[in-house]
Amino acid sequence: MKVRDRAGRLEASGAAALFVVHDEPRLVRSQLLAGVGELPFPVLVDREREAYRRWGLGRAAWWRVWLDPKVWQQYARLLTSGQRIRGSGEDTLQLGGDFVVAPDGTIAYSRPQRRDDRPPVGELLAVIEDLAGR
Description:
By secondary structure, this protein is of the alpha+beta class. The protein has one domain (2-131): 3-Layer(aba) Sandwich (Glutaredoxin). It is 38% helix and 13% strand. It has a two-stranded parallel ribbon. It has a two-stranded antiparallel sheet with strand order 3-4.
C-alpha cells in the first residue's frame, strides 16, 4: 500500500490518513487488505455509505469500469510486475475519492474517483506538506 510506505512523511507533516470503506469488515480483511500487513492508519466502515454521499462520491456505470481499456492495462501492469491483484469488494461500481482537509477544516484537495484511478501519493503529500509550510 503506497500510502503506508509514506507514513513517516505524513507524520512529519502533522497529518493523518484515514481510509473509509463500505464493505463488511470481514471482507475488507480477507480481500481488500489481504497480505497488506498492519496499517498505521484507521480504516472506518461506512456500510450505509453516508460519507460517500456527503463527499459527493457517486457510482460508475458498469461499462465505464469494466470496458475501459485503462482499467485492463492497469491490471496487466500489476500482473506482469508480479504484484497480486486484491479481491474486489461487494460493489465494484462505488467510486471513492481522495481528499486533504486543512487544519482549519476546509478542503485543500479534492479528487473524486472517475474509474480505477487514484492520484499519486506524492501529489497528496505535496499538498499536505504545503499546508504544513514545508
